[in-house]
Amino acid sequence: MATKSVSLGAAGLAAVVTLAVGVVAGRAFGGGSDDDGGGGNAGTAAIAGTKIDVIVKATESEFWQSMLAGAKKAGTDLGVELDLFGPTSEADIEPQVRLVEDAISRGAKAIVLAPNSSTALNGVIDRARSGGIKVIVVDNAVRTKSDGFIGTDNVKAGAQAGQRLCELITQAGKPNGKVLHESAVSGIQVLIDRFEGFKQGLAEKCPQATIVQTLVNDNDLNKAVGQVNDALTRVPDLAGIFADNNTSGVGTAKAVQEKGAADRVAVVAFDSDPAEVEAVRSGGIDAIVVQNPFFFGYQGVVEAAMAVAGSNAPQRLDPGAVLVDKSNVDAEELRSLLNPPKTKG
């Protein structure tokens, strides 16, 4: 089987785990046809007990806790031996390197990794793979080889955010307005791609809008609140804010609500922490770009098990992203996406 890239439409995002169970667990391990007489079950049994480590960016983040929950569910479904890990913060790069080193030492057959850096983990990933360990990378692509990548096309998703912010500031009569970029961490490829896409999307129909500043909060909620509070005071004619992850989104919403600025400043953010979802309902955030971390975890474990079993998973898999605002935040079809199961490593 040749490796391939797959992009899943946003309309199927909330239901995509069912597809993974039915197609991957049913066929990939068995290698048979639809009428192979239970080959899928035999293949799944063959990988039962396989040791797989899952390492996320930050165990204190509800986004990554959802990925861990997806991984745990896949581990149960496939019968693999699963261990769940992660540093406390997305800024903890060296601790994450040590977790990968620990996985190598413990004899893991595969690692599902959401890396906190596109480059800093390359050496340890190479060491794992040279020792025969399969590595599936999730969310943030690395600049070395892996056995598969699962993650949102962040340029495309960022463009969705930029297009929506343009719509919002245009509706407010400020298509040429000033925009703030509130960012979590510098130098992370995921966030670089989101911002690049955001600028492209904003410029399509709001070419005169100006991004006045990028502020970096180091994934510190209180710092994000303070930065946005200061910006709202310093730039009284600020038209919009783009917050590029959950910490930035929650911090922006808190600051906007503290300043009573929801009616004059449009906010578009990434991710779907409960506080962000509630801010969409209350008006502190106008729209969120929602990914599916539960799927990241589930599919990551499925692909890791496939790789150990000798099957080729898609080389790149993009689950897509959904734009959520007041009009659909309580839609039944988005309930599992906005309130997924969570667990800690």
Strand order of the largest sheet: 1-12-6-5-4-2-3
Percent of residues in β-strands = 15-25%
What are the segments in which pLDDT stays under 50 over at least 5 consecutive residues? 9-39
How far is the N terminus from the C terminus? 34 Å
The major beta sheet can be summarized as:
7 strands, parallel
Q: Work out the number of β strands.
A: 13
What is the number of helical segments per DSSP (H or I, 4+ residues)?
Answer: 12
Shape: elongated
Q: Note the run of SSEs as H and E.
A: EHHEHEHEHEEHEHEHEHEHEHEEH
Rounded mean pLDDT is 90
Helix content: 40-55%
**Rg, Å, rounded:** 21 Å
Class derived from helix and strand content: alpha/beta
InterPro entries: Peripla_BP_I, SBP_2_dom
Main location: other
Keywords: Signal
Organism: Plantactinospora mayteni
What does this structure look like?
By secondary structure, this protein is α/β, with parallel strands linked by helices. The protein is built from twelve helices and 13 strands. It has helices at residues 16-28, 39-47, 62-78, 93-106, 122-130, 154-171, 189-205, 221-234, 246-258, 274-282, 293-309, 335-338; strands at residues 5-7, 51-55, 81-85, 110-113, 134-138, 149-150, 178-183, 210-216, 238-243, 266-270, 287-290, 316-318, 322-324. The strands form two sheets. The protein has a seven-stranded parallel sheet, sandwiched between helices. A six-stranded mixed sheet has the order 8-7-9-10-11-13, sandwiched between helices. Strand 7, helix 7 and strand 8 form a beta-alpha-beta unit. Helix 1 packs across helix 2 (39-47) and helix 3 (62-78) runs parallel beside helix 11 (293-309). The radius of gyration is 21 Å and the shape is elongated. The model is unreliable at 9-39 (pLDDT under 50).
